[in-house]
Design brief:
- The chain is α+β, with helices and mostly antiparallel strands and 205 residues long.
- 12% of the residues are buried.
- It starts with a helix and ends in an 8-residue tail after the last strand.
- Helices cover 22% and strands 27% of the residues.
- β5 and β6 form a beta hairpin.
- Strands 1, 2, 3, 5, 6 and 8 form a 6-stranded mixed beta sheet that branches. Strands 7-4-9 form a 3-stranded antiparallel beta sheet, with no helix packed on it.
- The model has no long low-confidence stretch (mean pLDDT 80).
Amino acid sequence: MINNNKDNTNIAQEILDKKKSIKKRILINATSMVVLIAILSTTTFAWFSSKDTISDNKFSSGSLRVQFEESKSFNIDNIVPTTDAGKNTSKLLTIKNVGSMPANYSIEFVKSAFDDVEDGHDDCDNRLETDLLLNYYDGKNLITGTFVEVAEALKTGYIILPEEEKTITLTPWLDKNSSDTAQGLHFHSDISVIANQIVEEAPVE
C-alpha cells in the first residue's frame, strides 16, 4: 500500500526549501544591489576629455602720458603792434603721446608771477596781459584772440594717438591800435599739456 502521507510530506518539504532558496536569492540580490549603488555613488566616471594650457600669460594696464618734446622755458621778445601776427616771432612746441593709449589733450596757460630784477621790477605783475594777443596753430586748428580767450578755447581738447606727434605754433602779438603804454612791458605764463583718457559712452537705447 502506497504511503501518501510520506509523499505529501516530502513534497511540502521541497516546496518549503524552494521558498527559502528564493528568499535567500532575493536577499542576496538586494544586498548586492545596495552595495553596487554605494560603490557607484562614490565613483567618478572617466569620460573622454582633453586639456590644453597656455602658460605664463601677462595682463598689464595701459599707460596715458603726453609730453612736450622740448620742455625748456623760452622767451619771445620784441613783440610789436601789427595787422599780421606772422610778422612777430613764433615759437614751435612739439607734443608727443608717449603712452600706449589714445588721449584727449588740452593746452593750459596759467599766468605766473616772476621776479625780474634785471628790468627793475621787484615782482612782475604781468602788465602786458591786457594788450597781449595770441595765435595758436596746430596744423589744423587756428585760434586767435586775447590771451584769455585763446587759453579758454584750448580747454576743449584734441585727440592724439600713441606715438603721434603734433607741432604747435604760438605767436604772440599786439593789436595795431595798441598805445604807447604797452611799450617795455612783459608777461609770464606757464604752459601745460594735459591728457585725459578717452571714455567711450554707452549707446542710448
